[in-house]
Amino acid sequence: MYRERQLIHLHVGQAGVQTANALWELYCLEHQIKPDGRKEASAFDQLQKRISDTKTAGAKRLNVEDLDSRLIDTTEMRSAIKKPVPAPGSELNKAVEQTRDLDNAAHETLFEVSPFGQFVPRAIFVDSEPSVIGR
């Protein structure tokens, strides 16, 4: 479990607002969020989807292909294929889950999910001249 963290940025004046805009633009790029607030599917997300699809549909344990089959048919390859797959409660899977939880925690510190499924930056822009923010 993780504690929800809060990150507070205070940017004052026109320069502060411009700096904050650039900073949030970088946060969105870092967390793969499009300008419309939707999250892009990362390679990790695509892999997770493939794994869950495989669990429901069933698949081969390993599929190795090469144009030259002599390279695949080696004792090292055979021994690698026979290694056991980690069980769901194993230490390896726990480490992967903790890494994923930390990534999600960092993401949820900066962004909030709207009721429409969009990721919205947790930010308030304040300037003494309100017309500057609208531009």
TrEMBL record:
According to UniProt, the name of this protein is Tubulin domain-containing protein
Task: State one molecular function term (GO).
Answer: GTP binding
Segments forming domain Tubulin/FtsZ GTPase: 7-133
**Domain of life of the native organism:** Eukaryota
SUPFAM superfamilies cross-referenced by the UniProt entry:
Tubulin nucleotide-binding domain-like
State the Gene3D superfamilies in the record: Tubulin/FtsZ, GTPase domain (3.40.50.1440)
Read off the InterPro entries from this record.
Tubulin/FtsZ_GTPase_sf, Tubulin_FtsZ_GTPase
